[in-house]
Write a structure and sequence with these properties.
By secondary structure, the chain is α/β, with parallel strands linked by helices. The protein has 11 helices and 5 strands, in the order ααααββαβααβααβαα. A 5-stranded mixed β-sheet has the order 1-2-3-4-5.
């Protein structure tokens, strides 16, 4: 996508200048933050500079509490490559008629010996970070986000691994609720199972009312067709878009272009992070 093309669905120019001034006057912030990311923070806060600054600061502060998830993030490392083979993260190329973006995360059948829940969580956070430094379409940004979690194929063995790392999983859940520059429309969980019941039981106590109220559960993937247009969804879910495997391969190509950005820990580290306990 040509980011030099004039976009219409963007934050107010004057408000963005004010936002940047607030950031530049914050001595504890990283010296250089991605411009698209900052525009996104302001856009999802409807040009409210105070709220955008507060959310950005909170996100950076949360990252200090779990540095092992945000350091040494090399796309080419064995741990990340293995993680990429055990789950799929796919921002769909087409938007809904309401100008919402749909992102599907699923766990296709894989070599469970390669599955490591901490590495999967770390890699998923890398993918979220990469995605938020890219404009959503030629107009700039979407007006909301829909997330789909497909747990078909998620085995009891994988659940046991997740249970051993429940502290990390709870941090991940909390971070996705509070940190990213995303305006949540709905969370759909498809192909529900008894294994999922165990996962839900772990996170339910920390889910905010805002997130809980936006949860939809479906026994099959076809349940999405009642909420998302057929032309947006992959053929795996009864849609007309390319298969998840093809879309994931396309996304990995984009993801790899962000290797240098993700490797630079200075993109998220605060100047003084000693005040933040790693006990989350």
């Amino acid at each position: 996508m040509n980011n030099s093309v004039k976009k219409s669905n963007m934050p107010d120019t004057e408000k963005f200048t004010e936002f940047m001034s607030r950031i530049d006057n914050e001595p504890n912030f990283p010296e250089s933050l991605n411009q698209v990311l900052l525009e996104r923070y302001l856009k999802i806060n409807d040009n409210d500079v105070d709220n955008a600054f507060r959310l950005l600061k909170h996100s950076l502060e949360m990252r200090q509490k779990a540095p092992y998830l945000f350091e040494n993030r090399d796309i080419d490392s064995t741990e990340v490559q293995n993680a990429c083979s055990t789950f799929q993260f796919v921002p769909l190329p087409k938007l809904t008629k309401e100008n919402y973006k749909v992102t599907i995360i699923r766990f296709p059948k894989c070599d469970t010996g390669l599955y490591d829940s901490v590495h999967v969580i770390k890699t998923a956070l890398m993918m979220f970070d990469a995605n938020y430094t890219i404009y959503d379409n030629d107009n700039g940004f979407v007006d909301g986000e829909i997330f789909v979690l497909d747990v078909d194929g998620y085995s009891f063995k994988q659940f046991l691994d997740l249970s051993k790392n429940v502290k990390t999983f709870l941090f991940y859940t909390k971070f996705l609720q509070e940190g990213p520059p995303a305006k949540l429309v709905c969370n759909h969980v498809v192909n529900t199972s008894t294994v999922l019941d165990g996962v839900v039981a772990m996170v339910k106590p920390i889910l905010s009312k805002r997130v809980s109220d936006r949860l939809q559960f479906h026994r099959t993937g076809d349940g999405l067709l009642s909420f998302i247009e057929k032309e947006v969804l992959p053929i795996d879910y009864g849609g007309t878009e390319k298969s998840m495997d093809d879309l994931y391969a396309n996304w990995l190509t984009v993801f790899k272009t962000k290797r240098k950005y993700l490797l630079n820990d200075d993109n998220w580290k605060l100047t003084d992070s000693t005040a933040y306990s790693t006990d989350f």
